[in-house]
Amino acid sequence: MKYDVIVIGGAFAGLTAAIYSSRQGMKTLVITKDIGGQGLLTNDIQNFPGFTSISGFDLASKFQEQALLYGTEFVYDEVTGVEDNNGLFTVKTREEAYEADALVLGFGKTPRDLGSPGEEKYKGRGVSYCSICDGPLYRNKDVMVAGAGDHALQAALYLATVASKVYVPQRGNRISGSEDMINDAKALPNIEFIYESEVSEIKGDKTVNSVVLKNKSGNTTEIPVRAVFVEMGYVAKTAMLKDFVNMNNEGEVLIDMNGATSHPGVFAAGDVTNIPYKQAIISAGQGSVAALSAINYIHRKRGKVAMKSDWKYIPTGKKEEKLKI
């Protein structure tokens, strides 16, 4: 399918780029494994203008809601390669291939794989890296969260609101994470922690139908579930960009003041770039710059006048609630 702009990444940089691109009438697609990226690791963001305190989960959800309001489309998949075919870019994922006139690289760090047998086979078919994206698909079904720490606990707490049962294996004999989240999870009857166990294999037919857990003694137990939500933290995955855009020794994409990379038509923003300050607000600002630059690149290709700002007023029928301070 053909788009004007494809944004790779669904965290603050990518979502902001999508908002700006969609508002200017660009057919925009976001390809991402999850929504929020590393922002989901924090429950209390206090330095994002407009909010005295907001969780990464809630902030990312607001970003996505706004992008959807202006027509952004989303695909939850992992990008495996990017090609330039005479100025028309092809973005390949594990499931499909998409085309666009311009690209915005805004993926920062991506969810780390679990590394267990069956994971690769069932990606997108029961193996998910985004509880808020795919959780509603498993309403009233049994699921499992594979991971540790606050990120896994947050996913479990959310999934407990939609799934009938949430299994959370722990490698040790105690739960890792913040005390408040542990207490909240323990208080819910549909969250079950399984100690001294880890995922040995993910099984199924067309989709996931069970997970084999191996305990400390080497014994295995097979638990019927319909989905596995992998919460193993994040890792930078820029290898697919080698020889496509210039990068530094740390694997960060080099950009200029307009978010442009060394490859015409490709722009970048956020943690994937060489900008030293890795903050949510800076990623969002860079996302807007990259999007405006991508829009102008397309305008020039089409013989239109370049724009300098996002000036459009688009009636949405929605208003923000006033903050009570």
Provide an overview of this structure.
With 325 residues, the chain is α/β, with parallel strands linked by helices. It has 2 domains: 178 residues, FAD/NAD(P)-binding domain (3-Layer(bba) Sandwich), CATH 3.50.50; 105 residues, FAD/NAD(P)-binding domain (3-Layer(bba) Sandwich). It is 22% helix and 28% strand. It is built from 6 helices and 17 strands. The strands form 4 sheets. Strands 1, 2, 3, 4, 5, 6 and 17 form a 7-stranded mixed β-sheet that branches. Helix 2 links the parallel strand 2 and strand 3. The protein starts with a strand and ends in a 24-residue tail after the last helix.
Largest sheet: 7 strands, mixed
Helix-strand category: alpha/beta
Tally the beta strands.
Answer: 17
Could you give the distance between the termini?
46 Å
Question: Which helices and strands, and how do they pair?
Answer:
Layout: E1 2-8, H1 12-23, E2 28-32, H2 56-69, E3 73-76, E4 79-85, E5 88-93, E6 97-105, E7 109-111, E8 127-128, H3 131-134, E9 142-147, H4 149-159, E10 165-169, H5 179-186, E11 191-194, E12 197-204, E13 208-215, E14 220-224, E15 227-231, E16 234-236, E17 266-268, H6 280-301
Which key features would you list for this structure?
28% strand; globular; FAD/NAD(P)-binding domain; 325 residues; seven-stranded mixed beta sheet; alpha/beta; 22% helix; five-stranded parallel beta sheet; single chain
Structure in a nutshell:
This protein has 325 residues and is of the alpha/beta class. It contains six helices and 17 strands.
